[in-house]
Amino acid sequence: MKAKSTTKTSYHIPIGPIHPALKEPVHFEFEIDGERIVDVDVKLGHVHRGIEWAGSRRNPIQILYLAERICGICSYCHPIAFSLAVEGIADIEIPERAEYLRVIQGELERICSHMLWAGVAAHEIGFDSVLYITWEMRERALDLTEYLTGNRVTKAITMIGGVRRDITKDMIPRIQKDLKYLKDNFEKLRHIYLDDKTFKLRSKDCGILTNEEAVKLCAVGPTTRASGVKKDVRVDTSYFAYGDLDIDYMTPDVLTGEVNGDVYDRIVVRLLEVKQSIELIEQCLDKMPKGDIVAEPKVAKLLAQLKKVEGEGIGRHEAPRGEVVHYVKLTGEEHPYTWKVRAPTYNNILPWIPMLKGEQIADIPIVAASTDPCMSCTNRVGIIKDGNKNELTKEQLHQLSIQKTRRLMK
Amino acid sequence: MGFSMLGQVFAQMFKKPWTNKFPAKYQPSNTTKYLAKVAEGKAKINPPIEIPKGFRGKIKYDKDKCIGCKLCIKVCPTDAIEFKPEEKKIKIYLSRCCFCSQCNDICPTKCLSMGDEFLLADSDPYSKDLIVE
Amino acid sequence: MGQTRDIGGKKMSKNLKSEEILKYFKDEFKTKIKEGKIYKRVAGSKKNEKLGIWLKIDRTIFKDFIKHLCALQFPHLSVVSGNDLGETIELIYHFTLNSGKRMKEIELNVSVDLPKSKPEIETVCDFIPGALVTEREKQEMLGVKVIDIPDTRKLFLPDDIPDNVYPWRRDKTGPEKYYKNLHEVKK
């Protein structure tokens, strides 16, 4: 690198907002010195759609479907957190069978989301065959979702006071067959991700987030559990039927015995959670009591009941990416006065800064993808060298990442 | 390529593909003629994949049972249903429908149900195929 | 894992009870705590409880309150939500305490009222660095000025929106001119 006569050259790389492969855009600005990243700046707001404003003009039943379309992959978490908030305000008692059904749907969504992430992580490293194998297994889970709810992604299974569809006796053999398939193939997945030399070389000691930083920056979800912090809404609080089930915090020392807080630990945590979800669904199927599936089956009566209630409420749920919080304020009208949504990725943005400092450019895709952001990373990387703009496309950045893998394997 | 994947990759060469098959292996030069031949029994196509029970497809409306209570209009999240006051019946615009089936749940006479059709793409949002009344 | 957790050299004890927390703050700040109430919610077949505290505090003791809270046990700040109540702007800080032990977590919601003539509040970023994102959001959405915040740029809104439009407000500085009523497209 040629240094200028007066100052040391440092390059600024803006990594732009729109990326076709992921769900939401984000804008990074990296300051780099050679290949090492010195400083990171994050800018957001490219998919601000005014959803909370739209919610202030709709009644609670309509908001359920609006909330579902906040995110495609966490499409169950947002309506359910909103439902929890409203049920807290109106003091609706939920039937026990509905609580267990909600757990089953939530865990099924977690399996699908973590497998999608595992495939994407393998793709960022350069392992396309692992992407296909993982997504092949995910298709079975998606087919099961379609069988249970009517659609693969926008499930529309939540209703304030319960769920909309029941799991009848004749559906249970199909669920058990699919769970058995996932359990049998889990060992294959574990062997590929955790024992393979290339994965270990790329991900160990890369993108480290220490325990103190994770607590101070209020990180949530698998990102913080991989640094050893025990924080999980399902274990910390009692909601749905999680209080009755046997569940524990999944930190990397459950499997490997030590905690480093790097990308490898995040892979470990997510794979452990897939196994935990399969076990939780089996526990639920065993223990599910009989009864109603919704507190108030007549929707018109429910709407009239919600119109009279006043108060404020919080609903929290553990989405695949972390803690989702909804705050609702009802004031005795048809539309809520305030609805605040906090998706888990907003708390996981600040940890990107200590994770990326000191890493190489080729590590940006895998470190950013390891926190499983519900937003996109890169479309074009523009390197500005003394006024000449040289743009790399997404494919070229991806190639950089693959080339590093090849170099490490030699 | 990691050594853990080599076995899988070799085995895949001898296995059948896992994905669902297209109706015909190679695209026919004239689709309508090909379909006519299939109807006569002279050519074969791979059957379409079965749609699961409870799938939320195109909405079906039983006009005679409808009483004009407007409850479905109140809960529709996308405002896809319009009331026709002179007949006291409804008109559903499928270009706005999000297939949530909430209108089915709230209807007191159960005149709405979800069908199986999902191939509904069209270039005109107000075309005849996309309005149910 | 023992009962204590090390944060920056200070040892804090876990498993605070909700009555203890409420009593601690009421004794410390006396009349400046305007309202304090504990709520519960049961779930599941075994009817385990979930506890939470709502506190309404005076604006003058806000920074002191946060200092005492961090000394008692380092909280997790979920989000800050805001309400426009006509004459005042209400900010609600949603904290959680006691995470790490099965079913012992307590939600703490602290609400502060700011007058619209002077909507200023101190930052908590020096105690809790993770609050930066949510404080920047309140600055642009509600017009609250956060004193001493490390970064004052807009977060979610585009840069070319004028400075005195605040989307969450319901008075004349609201966003009414800035949306198109696509809802009423001709049917």
Short description:
The complex is a heterotrimer of chains A (410), B (133) and C (187). Chain A contains 15 helices and 10 strands.
Note down, in words, how this protein is organized.
The complex is a heterotrimer of chains A (410), B (133) and C (187). With 410 residues, chain A is α+β, with helices and mostly antiparallel strands. Chain A is 46% helix and 15% strand. Chain A has helices spanning 51-55, 60-68, 77-90, 96-125, 128-149, 172-195, 197-203, 211-216, 222-225, 233-236, 263-287, 299-308, 352-356, 364-370, 394-409, and strands at residues 11-15, 27-33, 36-43, 158-159, 162-163, 310-319, 322-331, 338-342, 380-385, 388-393. In chain A, helix 2 runs antiparallel to helix 3, helix 5 (128-149) packs antiparallel against helix 6 (172-195) and helix 6 (172-195) runs antiparallel to helix 11 (263-287). Chain B has 133 residues and is an alpha+beta fold. Chain B folds into two domains: 20-49, no CATH class; 59-132, Alpha-Beta Plaits (2-Layer Sandwich), CATH 3.30.70. Chain B is 23% helix and 13% strand. Chain B is built from four helices and five strands. Chain B has helices spanning 3-13, 31-40, 71-75, 102-106; strands at residues 59-61, 81-84, 89-93, 112-114, 131-132. The longest helix of chain B has 11 residues, at 3-13. Chain B starts with a helix and ends with a strand. The mean pLDDT of chain B is 85. Chain C has a single domain, classed as NADH:ubiquinone oxidoreductase Nqo5 subunit (Beta Polymerase, domain 2, 2-Layer Sandwich). Helix content of chain C is 18%, strand content 34%. Chain C has helices spanning 18-29, 62-72, 132-142, and strands spanning 4-7, 10-13, 33-43, 48-57, 76-84, 88-97, 106-115, 120-122, 145-147. In chain C, the strands form three sheets. Chain C has a five-stranded mixed beta sheet, with helices on one face. Chain C starts with a strand and ends in a 40-residue tail after the last strand. Classes of the chains: A alpha+beta (410), B alpha+beta (133), C alpha/beta (187).
